[in-house]
Amino acid sequence: MKSSGPLSTSWTAYLCLLSVLCSLFTPVVLVKENDFKKCHQSGFCRRNRAYADHALAQSSWQAPYKIFSAEGAAAVSLKDGQFEATILKTVDEQGSTVNLPLTVSFLKSGTARVTVDEEKRKSQSIELRHDSKARKERYNEAEKWAIVGGLTPDTDAKITHEDKAGVTVQYGPEGAFEAVIKFEPFAIDFKRDGTTQIQFNDRGLMNMEHWRAKVDKPEPEKKEGEEGQEGEEKKAEEEPKKEEVPAHLDESTWWDETFGGNIDTKPRGPESVALDITFPGYEHVYGIPEHAGPLSLKETRGGEGNYEEPYRLYNADVFEYVLDSPMTLYGAIPFMQAQRKDSTVGVFWLNGAETWIDVTKAKGSKNPLNRNSKASTNTHWISESGIMDVFVFLGPTPKDISKNYAELTGTTALPAEFSLGYHQCRWNYVSDDDVKEVDRKMDKFNIPYDVIWLDIEYTHEKKYFTWDPDMFKDPISMGQQLDDHGRKLVTIIDPHIKNVDNYPVISDMKSKGLAVKNKDANDFDGWCWPGSSMWIDAFNPAAIKWWTSLFKYDYFKGTMENTYIWNDMNEPSVFNGPEVTMPKDNLHHGNWEHRDVHNINGMTFHNATWEALVSRKKGEMRRPFVLTRSFFAGSQRLGAMWTGDNQASWDHLGAAVPMILAQGIAGFPFSGADVGGFFGNPEIELQTRWYQAGAFYPFFRGHAHIDARRREPYMAAEPHRSIITAALRLRYSLMPSWYTAFFHANQDGSPIIRPMYWTHPSEESGFAVDDQFFVGSTGLLVKPIVEKDKFDTEVYIPDDENYYDYFTYNKVSTHKGKSVSVSAPIETIPILMRGGHIFPRRDIPSRSTQLMKFDDYTLVVVIGKDGSAKGELYVDDGDSFEFEKGQFLHRAFEFKQLLLTSEAASKPSAEGQAEGEWMKQFRDVSFDKVVLVGAPSSWEGKKEVPVTSGGETHKVRLDFYKAEGGRAAFAVLGRLGVRMGADWEVDFA
Ligand code: NOJ
């Protein structure tokens, strides 16, 4: 066919115009991936990956690390649980070595800790380049921020075997653990009950880039006639091509490095630290958040379905992030768990610098004792700087690992109860009147919520601790209205301080010397929301003290006791910095380079704000609530996190659950994702499904970008408004169970929502399941719907127990290890109740947690296959620290042999002390009803049962409903008339 000239020209013009228009109107919704480094663009990652390739390609690779004294015999010692030796690294062909002091600490908890330093840097015998003021040592203060306990040595640890090849140290509970420390090459095998579980340097990839002076190589002399471009070209033509330096020996990024136009001056030269850690027989590894990908980590060295890049930990403001990616996000917890049938182990790589982790799997176990296992997982950890510091956990259960990790880094702070309610946020509520109106509307539509949030626009010109004088004329009356309705306000405070005149916060910070410094030790100036800004250096104790003073009610005027804080942008986000953050050669308190502490930075700011909130007013002892975007190991002690700038898309809804599960198993379970999606406008079905999922996030907040349309729950048209409201009510009715789950997290580091492998570590078929979870120990199995037009779903069943539909009490016909189809019309969230559990609820609809404080409870008993069930309730005033003085109730419920009992699960240490205000008011709170699902048919005809408490017995009405259709038999007991805090029993015999 002949093409017509003019037509094709006009088509071209039309298409051009269309594409210009599209580029104008299509929101830029993809992360600028090129703004962030890939491994080959990060010198030390490239070198270490190449080193691994080089080593693994050799048939007889000998890692150049050995434990030997100068005389040739190993000089090692074990004293009070601490093994000491020096590792020698051979650094050249002549056999010269450098000394790397090694300590292996065996801790009472059964955890082992391996640290390796570098003698030359430790003794500060190195030279810095560029007149740098930076510290000379390898950073060794990560533990100051991350570790709060669990370091008591195991003085019973003993050497059980010693020869020329190495030593074996026996340690841990009942001496069941062993560390086999090999001398040449240096390596450690960690064993439990005689079986190797974790191996260090088994593949020989250990690498500590030792200090060396920069040798300036002379420029090759130029001969006449070679000058100028012409000469260069001629030379290139004539000379045979020089052989390329192998990447692991490439020195081009040793002394400086450029990315995106930013130069990193690297005054200490190359100093990376790397180690291979192998989990023989373990097919699954989990953890190392924050990444948007599956819970069971993928392989990272290419191949079908795998990633090409290692998992990266370098806290960054990634803006609109991509899913199913090992790319770094806002926070970093370098803690990994490995899982095989009936065994869980873990490692914690305590390092605050940029870190990359390669994961590969090998088919078949090398270990003859792990016959059941199908594969082994190899990991390769690479950090830019710092000492090597690794904790080893040998389990054997997921619960043990969570507990041992929590002993070191602390547990989730017991939260203020309101913070488990629903949070209503957007960027931005525009005025105090706007806030009041939203608050009234929520009431008008009977929608429960606890907190309304103010994003950056409430400030006067982005100056934190001020209010926009036109739009927020009367913040106190706003706070007052919220308080009258039992509600709270959260205001945002970021770490960048606007660098302008007449702003006391900046002049104070500068004059006191509390800002982060640039490489020349002057205050670092960068770009963020306010324009030119400086950053508080929250590593500095003096800065924390000063920060605390800014939150006093008479300084941050307009705030009240019901004001709490949101810390955003604390990676830190620096719009004009390399990878949207600070230059690595910036300096922090103690002259540590930003390079060393980058991943810890966000936590220090979160910590400063937490400190500020606990000390706002003398005598006011309320639990703080601070939300953070950036985090590190230990951040769980300080509040909640959320997964940052997601999108209003089904994919992002689906990605949130695995991300939140990963947070939970990495010890920071108080987490959530922006409900509705931050960017964009969710269609109503998506928004509705997101509320249904969000009702099961430990942190439950709706949030939206400044350009997104208003979407408060009452804005939805019917029937969606009612459906969303029902999801919110469900959250509130289960509040006692949520609070109890948080209590458990606070006690032993258990996740709040729990993946299948964590609850059922014997069921291999559930190890990769990451789209459903149990809520605490309630036995509630939830699978949110995350797909459009999906009105049924498959729920994986991990055991042989009875399962019932939460809403209908229908008995679900299940098979262990198989999925069962559950119907999920738009008004339904798939929730199953597992037999054998008892969980508390509060069924009287309420507007906020504060208004529910003294409501009666409902107890749901889901009778298990063996006719029994168990559960717990923890309750306190939800606000103060009085629980530390014994002002709480912790009850254990049990249904066994037709007897339902309640007794104290743990007794206050200060038992016998007078009841405080809350305890007194709580005295009359009771159980309004008890529902028993799966009740025996023999109860038919029973009209009442005896309840005994304090030696007195009275009768309570019982209504029995026999099984009908698919519905299981159930019984409802009327008001129990017993005190919550008293022991009681109900006899159903
Ligand atoms: C980035 C945060 O991720 C987002 O939640 C917030 O609304 C904006 N900063 C503005 O403060």
Automatic annotation (TrEMBL):
Reaction(s) catalysed by this chain's protein: Hydrolysis of terminal, non-reducing (1->4)-linked alpha-D-glucose residues with release of alpha-D-glucose
Signal peptide as annotated in the record: 1-31
Compartments in which it is found: Endoplasmic reticulum
Domain Glycosyl hydrolase family 31 C-terminal: 749-838
Principal location listed in the UniProt entry: endoplasmic reticulum
Superkingdom per UniProt: Eukaryota
Biased composition (Basic and acidic residues): 210-251
Protein name: alpha-glucosidase
Biological source species: Apiospora hydei
